[in-house]
What we know:
alpha+beta, 2 domains, 4-stranded antiparallel beta sheet, 5 helices, elongated
Amino acid sequence: MNRKPDPEPPEQPPAEPDVEAGSEAESAAQIPPDRELWSLDGHYFNAGSLRDLLETFADLDVGDVVFVARPARPQVGHYLPAHAIVQQLAEQASDECGEAAEGWPQVGPEALFELDRFLQSWIVRHCPVHFWNMTDVREHLLTREDIARSRRRAD
């Protein structure tokens, strides 16, 4: 079989992308984990306070349900597990060499553990997280006091 030559590696690593001050990525990374965020639908938590949510959605009223939750930085190290790399190796070998590659690679649990540790370390070091999972999601039934407090502060 004809094999394509491997591409030449770049001589220098690519430049870091510029992140503008106040950009979404930067501000999301700075959200303190003890802060609550608010949402109209329980999926997009983009209001920093109940007041912000009520100002954004002026048609909300007493008895409407909104959501509140706490941001938590996701643990992304497991997004690319070692077994997926080994499976990709096996598939590539099978695609390129057919049955001759059957049963390859033979990787034991210690080697998988070592690769997992390396991948997790690499991901944490080179793929900084600028997004959050929302935890402790709770419904909040809007009260007369919520609406009045929001309107008093807006005046």
